[in-house]
Protein 1
Amino acid sequence: MGGSTFGERFAVTTFGESHGGALGVVIDGCPARIELSEADVQADLDRRRPGQSRLVTQRDEADRVSIHSGVFEGLTLGTPIGMTVANTDARPGAYADMVDLYRPSHADYTTEAKYGIRSWQGGGRASARETVGRVAAGAVARKMLAAAGAEVLGWVSAVRDIVAEVDPAEVTREAVEAHPTRCPDPAAAARIAEAIEAVRRDGDSVGGVVTCVSRGVPPGLGEPVFDKLDAELARAVMSLPAAKGIEIGSGFAGTLMTGRTHNDEFAPGPHGRPVVLTNRSGGIQGGISNGADIVLRVAFKPTATIASQQRTVTRQGEPTVLAARGRHDPCVLPRAVPMVEAMVCLVLADHLLRQQTTQLAPGSSPRA
Amino acid sequence: MGGSTFGERFAVTTFGESHGGALGVVIDGCPARIELSEADVQADLDRRRPGQSRLVTQRDEADRVSIHSGVFEGLTLGTPIGMTVANTDARPGAYADMVDLYRPSHADYTTEAKYGIRSWQGGGRASARETVGRVAAGAVARKMLAAAGAEVLGWVSAVRDIVAEVDPAEVTREAVEAHPTRCPDPAAAARIAEAIEAVRRDGDSVGGVVTCVSRGVPPGLGEPVFDKLDAELARAVMSLPAAKGIEIGSGFAGTLMTGRTHNDEFAPGPHGRPVVLTNRSGGIQGGISNGADIVLRVAFKPTATIASQQRTVTRQGEPTVLAARGRHDPCVLPRAVPMVEAMVCLVLADHLLRQQTTQLAPGSSPRA
Amino acid sequence: MGGSTFGERFAVTTFGESHGGALGVVIDGCPARIELSEADVQADLDRRRPGQSRLVTQRDEADRVSIHSGVFEGLTLGTPIGMTVANTDARPGAYADMVDLYRPSHADYTTEAKYGIRSWQGGGRASARETVGRVAAGAVARKMLAAAGAEVLGWVSAVRDIVAEVDPAEVTREAVEAHPTRCPDPAAAARIAEAIEAVRRDGDSVGGVVTCVSRGVPPGLGEPVFDKLDAELARAVMSLPAAKGIEIGSGFAGTLMTGRTHNDEFAPGPHGRPVVLTNRSGGIQGGISNGADIVLRVAFKPTATIASQQRTVTRQGEPTVLAARGRHDPCVLPRAVPMVEAMVCLVLADHLLRQQTTQLAPGSSPRA
Amino acid sequence: MGGSTFGERFAVTTFGESHGGALGVVIDGCPARIELSEADVQADLDRRRPGQSRLVTQRDEADRVSIHSGVFEGLTLGTPIGMTVANTDARPGAYADMVDLYRPSHADYTTEAKYGIRSWQGGGRASARETVGRVAAGAVARKMLAAAGAEVLGWVSAVRDIVAEVDPAEVTREAVEAHPTRCPDPAAAARIAEAIEAVRRDGDSVGGVVTCVSRGVPPGLGEPVFDKLDAELARAVMSLPAAKGIEIGSGFAGTLMTGRTHNDEFAPGPHGRPVVLTNRSGGIQGGISNGADIVLRVAFKPTATIASQQRTVTRQGEPTVLAARGRHDPCVLPRAVPMVEAMVCLVLADHLLRQQTTQLAPGSSPRA
């Protein structure tokens, strides 16, 4: 494949370029009999949508989703769920200057090195617009996880050096959505909004960190070797545009501790299950969920599109300078939150199903 | 599958537990006509081997590899390469105390939650011993990459707060292998050795960071969406035991910069290809290699096995205390270096092959 | 996954039910720089389309395809090609009688046994209408194969006991398309048309055989073990609705011969390649193409939908009788031809790409 | 991958050449807590073993299996099961004549066309000896199927024009194993034994048909589109050496019937499930099992290795003649029976697990 499919049992395939006719996604393997409507999907797309606030790109896309298959009378059929979203405010002409040159820290050069051809209309397949399909699929995964008692919640925990002071165990969706920055610490949110406004005016950009917690995940998800749950989550979020790092639990800070202080001791918990007294493992031990909150942090670099003049080269190998135009986000963080959540939902949904094959189900026999 | 296969074209499947009869690996999809001998594989296994220095576990395993298939007269056949390594110094009896309790921050509880059964002899499938198969396969990938002009080099760049001061572009394998810590900064290496000795005497453990650079990787590797090269590398190294975080290029530090300072400008380079004037992207842009060095950093937590008393629970849900015995590494970092290299080699080899299908090869026609 | 994806490198994912909003397909892994237009795809869809002649179902669907992504200025980009076809003449009301009962030899009961839910509007996912996506994808594969010098041609070689007398090596597309039966033997074609008309009038149905030949396939395609080219072709065509058998080369008749008469001797051929003096192998030896024509035959059962009264049971387990209504094909063979061709094209395109990774491409090194 | 892995959840990877050091297999995804011992696996290997009677090749291989991992105290762990069988009676020298020429209807030429290299010692990877791994894995699948109430039974139903007269619903393993031909019709068995002896003396070979019935398979297995259960079975058995055709249920003979006589009417059955009054569907409708016996027939061509002189060409393109030597089966049918069974077991085990993800399992929530 060409790397546009994600997941083994809950398998998601996306298609679409930033300025093509439509973006879309197919989910193959969603279990039957999950309640699902277009409104469920639209809710997450609206959180990802451009133009939702002054802090993000002003490209005006309604991003209305159509579900073409796989749902019947409000329930999933178990068959593939095909969905599309039309591109309506594409302005390819705005990119005419870029036909023959490579924008720094974009995928222009690498795309051409890979394929020998490139759609110069916006970022093509490398555009963050591709995440429309991921977020739509993530909304379906979220419905399935809810049916299993799990929820996934992300927020902006830092922009540049402005850090939210919150307890991951206490953050609520209401607190996150209360501010267009999606930072649940009101004081930090205000400073972040100012910082984004400032770089926007300056033609510059900033990055930051998204934290994501998954609550109510049953123990046992993840495989012991290559498909460890943390490895799968790392791949998932690192596949988002502009992601440059990921930590689970104690992460890089954990390297400064010793085993004696880092280990999570066990105590007896409800239903006869052990519970951890601390959570430096971030909810995953040996690659498998232990029932505690799964906590991860994702680093996003500053947006590559800036208004400053930058040195670059043409397709013909000549040096030149570029000052990018076009609509873009001065900071991807607010819109990155639903993207990170979507990817985490996809991983958990997939592993929830995979876990259903770890033992033979009782009553498999027709003679029973 | 059960998550024991890695890679799409250069596909590696491992098997084996820490105290089973043998560990092994099958590589399916290695190209034909690559030079390969058991000595090539043994060289990397020897760097991973327990007992190689005082700093690592004293379990005494020769880890001699046997190649059973896929090689003929010194060349790969294109068919699966099956390899095994016998467990010879397994001492399952040492684990008899652990039949009925869960070691903190190990995979004991999560394994049982997943499968409803667990081999209590050491870590079972979750043991770092499983990486024997990965390192053997990585050695084959390394041979293939060398034929394509690429090399992968890792080293210990930090243990706890002791940080190596080296330029990633200048580190050599000789400098890395010159000290049993695998830290190429001699001053830091000496301090790291002392720190490891100190925690060993104290029955404690430490963690740290491995840095890995891949040189000579052709531009164009990686896919634009889910299978971005950085996402694949992240999954690969995060699947190693004890890994808690990964950064590519500027990583988390990059979130403190603005776009103007973070972007990598282009200049004309050799062969008509653009080259980056800085490398904050870490050799990957839009998920695709750009020909610059690929630089990543992996955080490893302190070893979970320590000699101190820790609170835990039994399988029956009763609280108890544990003081682990058995041979173990007070610090996994020196042995993690070949493991990280192996995983990076596997990703690059797989994507090098995948890239060969991105365009139709000339002369496909038998009528040509 | 849920089995809606086909192919490893040229990977096709379909979605859509017989009476849902739309049918579609995503191709991930099509090489870049292949010439492609909607007209190329439409040509094959028109051959599959209902209502194309009196011999097939009279459901009136234009089956106009839209390409949403992956093509730019007439060339493939290497990114996913998303395509949809709207359902416009769906008449779900015609199936209201079938909400609560299972049509004999259809997928009604088995679908409900599988998912615990079923769209009773037509065949749902099991409908032959699902093959719209396959044929659209097959048309893209056909373009790629043409660029490699290969062509795939199918025809109706038998309906019931009426057998076409043609030499597979000599059949042309013109001869096949000259008659609505898609039988290139004019005398047999006339008799087949009569037979189909007769069963239609009688409320009955008939089956038959499609033969398919692939010419110009380079030697070396197919893998030596599970993914033998003949195994892959068998799976491909047996996944078509109503297929009940497949033969390659000598097939079942070959079991009546001895090795001495069955073996295909070699003689020196052009370009220093051996050629077979006979072709009982059907172009594949040891699962790998040998450069000779690949010849296969597919058995299709009589259409399950008939107008006669048949015994069946309701969802509640009560016996009942059914006389199906709704528009249907009295014989699937004429429309099965483009379906078989599409599946064969998909297999060959996939293996053509897979073969490009069997050896390391020269010039992989950026230092070369 | 290189096509040496089979199955999506119950995934089997084989390795080994006919004259390499060892053959082996890894099963990834076998559920935990299935009873398994080496004796279980050996039983099926003994039925596949060369030298088991005068009717088969006289190569003397004990084919003793070693299980290296994945089993603990008589139960599967859910982790990969690695198994090997050593080659002990390899006589590569017997093939020295064949270094430079291509045996007719073998894989010699196609292997070299594919990889640019070939192990000339026997059939290499294309040898039927590769099926050791399949049969070992199939034995594990058989154990799992037995736990689910299903059994798989094959037999020789024809050699050349000698056809067994038996009712597939009544055949027993005892009747099959009562004669070295594995034909459960004693009269036909005797004639088949004579026919095989005759061609052996004559330096010739014969082919035939294996029939396989799967009983007790629950309804609901198989996916509605590409991974139809019949398609998967077709691929599975067509990947066996020398297979040239496959039929499910009515197969090619069904093309001679009309829908009215071909359709399987339903009647109320036990447990409220419908049962079919006939079984022309062969236990599969719309690609999904319906609970009836799954019946398939596989055509095997006459063994390609014969003692007669045949025309061929050398690697240098020169015409030559060949009279093969070496030990071989004059008829593969008796040994093909366990191979067919193994492949059918692998498909059913895989789809039994896949079916466990079609709906969300109750009690997935840790808060339940």
Protein 2
Amino acid sequence: MSRAPLVFAAGIFYPGGEHITGWRAPGSEPHAYLDLDYYTRFAQTAEAGRFATLFLADELYVWDRFRSGIDHGVNVRLEPFTLLSALSQVTSRIGLAATVSTTYNEPYHVARKLASLDHISGGRAAWNLVTSASDEEARNFGRDAHLEHGLRYRRGAEFVDVVNGLWDGWEDDAFLFDKQSGYYADRAKLHVLDHRGDHFAVRGPLNIPRPVQGHPPLFQAGASEAGRDLAGRTADAVFTLGGGSLDTAQGIYDDYKRRAVAAGRGADDLKVLPWFSPIIGDTQADAEERFHELAALTPDRVQIDLLSHYLGTDLGERDLDEPFTFEFDLDGFNQSKSGYQSIAALLAQRPYSIRELAWEVLRRRFTLGTPDTLAAHLVERYEKRAADGFILMAPTLPDTLVRFVDDIVPRLTDAGVYPREYAGDTLRENLGLARPAGRYAA
Amino acid sequence: MSRAPLVFAAGIFYPGGEHITGWRAPGSEPHAYLDLDYYTRFAQTAEAGRFATLFLADELYVWDRFRSGIDHGVNVRLEPFTLLSALSQVTSRIGLAATVSTTYNEPYHVARKLASLDHISGGRAAWNLVTSASDEEARNFGRDAHLEHGLRYRRGAEFVDVVNGLWDGWEDDAFLFDKQSGYYADRAKLHVLDHRGDHFAVRGPLNIPRPVQGHPPLFQAGASEAGRDLAGRTADAVFTLGGGSLDTAQGIYDDYKRRAVAAGRGADDLKVLPWFSPIIGDTQADAEERFHELAALTPDRVQIDLLSHYLGTDLGERDLDEPFTFEFDLDGFNQSKSGYQSIAALLAQRPYSIRELAWEVLRRRFTLGTPDTLAAHLVERYEKRAADGFILMAPTLPDTLVRFVDDIVPRLTDAGVYPREYAGDTLRENLGLARPAGRYAA
Ligand SMILES: Cc1cc2nc3c(=O)[nH]c(=O)nc-3n(C[C@H](O)[C@H](O)[C@H](O)COP(=O)(O)O)c2cc1C
Ligand SMILES: Cc1cc2nc3c(=O)[nH]c(=O)nc-3n(C[C@H](O)[C@H](O)[C@H](O)COP(=O)(O)O)c2cc1C
């Protein structure tokens, strides 16, 4: 089988684009962040660009650990399932992927919502499993502190088992709707889950038939050892941090594929989709200038408080311009371990002051270039097997997405790596993934 | 102030209409119960009839306590929030009310979903608080048995407090979106909830602004002492069992109004909306015939198993045709106490066999008549203050709703009790309810 074509997910976390102060950019529309119309334009633009899916990142709290978060950050967002369900009615082909924290949800509710979204969208639902990272989220759900990192991944793994089990409880052809005989369902095709594990006890059955896609695709983004292990065993696609050299990206790509194979799956069963946050200029210098304009919209305080957050330590009282030293303790750190490690890696390369480091962390989120160089970058990463596709996290919205679809997508189709039409009707078809048979199918 | 006009909610529990085997009726469309298009027609028909709101009843399990439930029952449904969010895009005026179990949900998630639905629908969201009733639901959420009745209502009361508190956390004008200064929000207008109660610990703030309606309206349907008490203190509208004599209905109506006043609220702040499930005939005899046709679609076994369910006791092995005696133990009964009591009340009137009783329980759900007599019934109940409106639970769908809008609604407008147009844009406006100020509003 030839390799599946390049795929894109259109990601959105901050409604104004991939930076906490992106809402200040000249073209941004901060008054519209609760209007469905704003997201409709986003979704329809991505659909015009044959994006496989929308991807709604999500967190379960307001970032108020530092006051700059309230003063300057876009701390509001629509809830993913309500937003995607509404968008299912104004789109027809693009996937609808919602982030779900397995730490603060119940598998019965999640299996049901995803099945429901999958049915009403004709097979376009997906989920992005996260385990959450902040104590602030814990405090909105009855706990004082976040679950320990290993424990939350074990809970996440069991969560996936339960959800898949609930989906498979009714076989695909369990329903008869036979008005004549009065039989609505065929009892022989119903399998009660009766799950009793370390983290969940869920009897089932689910009160909705098996999803159109069998199992709506599972995305993941955890990059720690535990996160990669779970992805290798269970995910259909993984979002990786991206950036870095071709070598590094190939290494990450291979690592995920190896884990899938080690788990008895095919290498193609797990798509690797690095983060891609382009700043698109007419020239390289223009792109640099745009980056600096964007950066200038972020108060220094915000950028330093974000660094404090990533490191789990308030740096606000330290000297911001002295060389910065920090005792990293990966084992004891309970937020995102991969984010923490990437900062450790930066500091290992050369000395930084806190202020410099904060800005370097921001800078590294973005890839700067022209439509030509950015398209060439994407083609190379795809062809050299550093990526099966990308999650586009547009730094500013709506403009970056529009420009990406207008100026970069055509270069990719011309290069022969990107489809001119959607391959199918369901998200699985558009990702090049087979529909899983139910565990009880004959 | 003159009395608010009569209002209707268009209810749906079984997708085929208000009986577990309604899917067998000649006009029913059981293949369409997962198609959004089916619900779109439902919603648009109700909107054409100026219904204040859609109302999605809901349970968190499949009724498989008896095998007849799997064989014959419509045990599948779309999840309310995904369905209503999708419907928000194909309707413009009608309310969108989702049932929420406070026993198996987290207030942070619920406050957020309702706020999100309220924002994307322009102020049309509402919730129906239930505490759930069956052990089967408990078993889908990690418990062996359902929470005790009193405990679940105390949890429900605290749940409402937390949700209202989260909604009020951001004042209505907390957001500035000031690109120039870089201030997104006004910190002085954010109030962290920091709730610590017997059942929940929720810090907040919510990651979405205050809903369009301030607080999306709260519906309730608990009819036990604990349920009525909670409704009197907190609900905007209550669904009552309906049926019964004018006297009885007036008694129930007064009881709720008294409870609202005792809680320091106005009598008009709590709408009383009895259940109304009409079988519409061209003549009374025609309506009777339609009822018997509908009843004939229900296998005996189903109706007896339902009675067993309502009583929490398997009657299947008993003699179905002997006079039935039963030791009622209201205190020890942990499902719906009000349903249990209404069966006790029937048996206190005269002897029934199990088979007769099962059918009498079914019969009492419905009101049989012609468009003229049914319209006159509704007008009388409204004018004599036995109802502020009704929840229409159409026994069969789509036909009963269509006929209701075509033949009964015009009689109500002619009688001067029902509006010819929607009063406003939000559900609160259409229910004649004021928008609550935030608790921190100046
Ligand atoms: C592209 C991408 C998107 C992510 N989206 C979310 C998200 O929406 N919500 C969230 O809580 N974490 C998100 N994360 C973080 C990870 O899912 C994960 O929770 C975090 O990296 C901690 O896990 P780790 O310790 O395995 O790295 C995202 C990460 C990446 C790379
Ligand atoms: C019109 C109406 C609609 C109801 N809808 C639901 C529902 O959707 N889900 C549910 O679990 N219970 C529903 N109920 C049941 C009640 O909300 C309540 O949970 C039940 O009566 C048990 O409470 P009680 O013991 O206070 O009566 C409904 C009741 C009525 C009268």
Protein 3
Amino acid sequence: MAFNMVASHAVWPMENDAIFGLAAKAKEAIDKYGKENVIDSTLGALVDDDGNLICLDTVYSELKSLPNAAIAAYAQVAGQADFLEAVQDACFKEYRPKAYIKAVATPGGTGAVRHSIWNYTEPGDSILVCDWFWSPYVTISEEFGRTVTNYEFFNDKGEFNITSFKEKFESLIDRQKRLVTVLNTPANNPTGYSLSDEEWDEVLDIAKEKAKDPDNKIIFMVDVAYIDYADKDRRKFFAKFSNLPENILILIAYSMSKGYTMYGMRSGAIIGVSSNEEIAKEFYYTCMHANRANWSNGTRGAMSVMTSIAKDPAKRKAYEEEVAKYRTMLKKRANAFVKSAEECGLKILPYRDGFFVSIPCNNAKQLSDELIKEKLFVVALKKGLRFAVCAVSEDKCKIAPAKIKEVMDRYK
Amino acid sequence: MAFNMVASHAVWPMENDAIFGLAAKAKEAIDKYGKENVIDSTLGALVDDDGNLICLDTVYSELKSLPNAAIAAYAQVAGQADFLEAVQDACFKEYRPKAYIKAVATPGGTGAVRHSIWNYTEPGDSILVCDWFWSPYVTISEEFGRTVTNYEFFNDKGEFNITSFKEKFESLIDRQKRLVTVLNTPANNPTGYSLSDEEWDEVLDIAKEKAKDPDNKIIFMVDVAYIDYADKDRRKFFAKFSNLPENILILIAYSMSKGYTMYGMRSGAIIGVSSNEEIAKEFYYTCMHANRANWSNGTRGAMSVMTSIAKDPAKRKAYEEEVAKYRTMLKKRANAFVKSAEECGLKILPYRDGFFVSIPCNNAKQLSDELIKEKLFVVALKKGLRFAVCAVSEDKCKIAPAKIKEVMDRYK
């Protein structure tokens, strides 16, 4: 091509999404060899033991029984008022922080991450993200002319690396005076790690120290996409967001994709938590403007489903029981994987909750390619392999670690 | 507030959407005085004579009969392959241009407009829009640090003002060497105007002249949000996008909001049309990157509905007949409004197709406020009033012009 029609900031490699590509290959293998002979651990969606996407009955029977107008009508730009209440309850449950809190509807968690980075950083700023991360954090940052700085998520003992966090956090805030830090916890994608309450205290103490300089603007983007599959007490950290200094703002990316199995409905929210009423208000109007300027308003039917379920105690109970059933299923699968890994000596990162387990290695792409020959499909990351326990039956979770170990040993 | 937490480019007035606010007032009046006594012409959605939102049966019976997984699953980042074919057919029908054409799914037409402005202009650029415009064009431009330049849509004779278009187009392209021009036609919001085929020729001739300079990059964003309510031959202009110079790129914002009454489902597409295969490819990958970085992927259920209907001749026929029924209803209402306006001497802009009629005046806000007292709710624009025939029965469309004229005369 002799020239670009797109503007200088909008030239990108002409490539397709790697994970979707791998998932397509896995599907081909299933068609060829039969699903009993293939382990497809690619996509981050909950799948039953027969390989079918799990769609919560309580959610879809509600969606399909809504009056058409509750799906068809435009939502308010910021989201329906009752949804914006319900989504805060769904997120915080009994651990709502004592603070000024506002919410704005977004398409999934992605919309919330996007709003955080666009609205709370200056062009050229660097965003702080750990070195085991969901790759769209980088895509989003780069799209808007921002960069990403990584700290090491784990130290040599396999514990949360507070030293690395502190070093990078302090050098970035000193240089930029404004910093968005992404924390994808609990049930981190791709590792399944969840910060403990003590680790949260350490993180917030470091931030509070830096908040003593009133020129510093400290923003935490807490991505809780997988929170509904974490243990109940994994929400306790929310209460720590009470009474923070005014120049620490908490943004929470809440997604209906996983907790409501509504991946394709594109619904979620960004929730802003501040000790200062005006900062919370500014958050609301800035995100509303960004909504109008990017996608206009959110998916009304998904909002209707959440509020209908929230308002009806019987529906709510049924929904929560259905989620709990799959949370248990997921836990069994993950336990099986972790136990087998231990037995065969496969080193994995500390798993706590959620859809994924990660296996550190230096040659992830090579191993992923080799594992395809073994009919095991696993996503290659920069620092290792991501195994999606959400997508693989307990039986297969038991046998997968030994297969991975065997191929790793072959390429040592 | 002593300081902003948001970045400097993300500070916006703390205000709610004016149209939604007026719609809420109209609803209050209906509750108080009864719907037969109120004319609510605020929202741009098709409403039946009883004031209920029209939700196409053929669309919602299809949505509700889809397997849950066809709603629940993530869509591909660029959109499902069969949807991207179907949406081109839905847009062009028999007037598909001979060119390289690619489509990418977006949340409604807004997502497509947003991608056009973000990807095809440089920071600080000005976008060309006529002076009767959908206000989010400005919201979107400002969000991204772009400005809007207006040309006059109509000359003194009430015809399309090609002289004003030419003057502004040429001065902007000479200065910027890159220009995104928005054309919201057919069935313009807010005027109901549709460019004739001859007017399209004049516009394209002006562009082709400027395209002789190979350094000029000329982009037309054609917003066809209301096209399914325009006459059949209003699609003819699409064929003019065949064999354009390589430095003229056509982007089309197609929305499922109106044609499928799926406002709240947030589905549409941006369609790129170029004589150069590489430019079309660049368009596709740039918009795919922007999808990933803003909302990840589109609403799967809406895509499923469009493709299911497109693939089944009986469903397609039923859908088209249902739309045609409402197109006729709309035409009757608009004809009633235009005829009454003529009879009472209310000056309106030339209406051709679509949801709205506009009434030019200098004191729109004052008139809109006064009309509220008459229980007539109509949106105030900078240059006049917007009356939504889509939302008002034929009987009320007959009586509204005289009411408006009366109040206008009072404040002359």
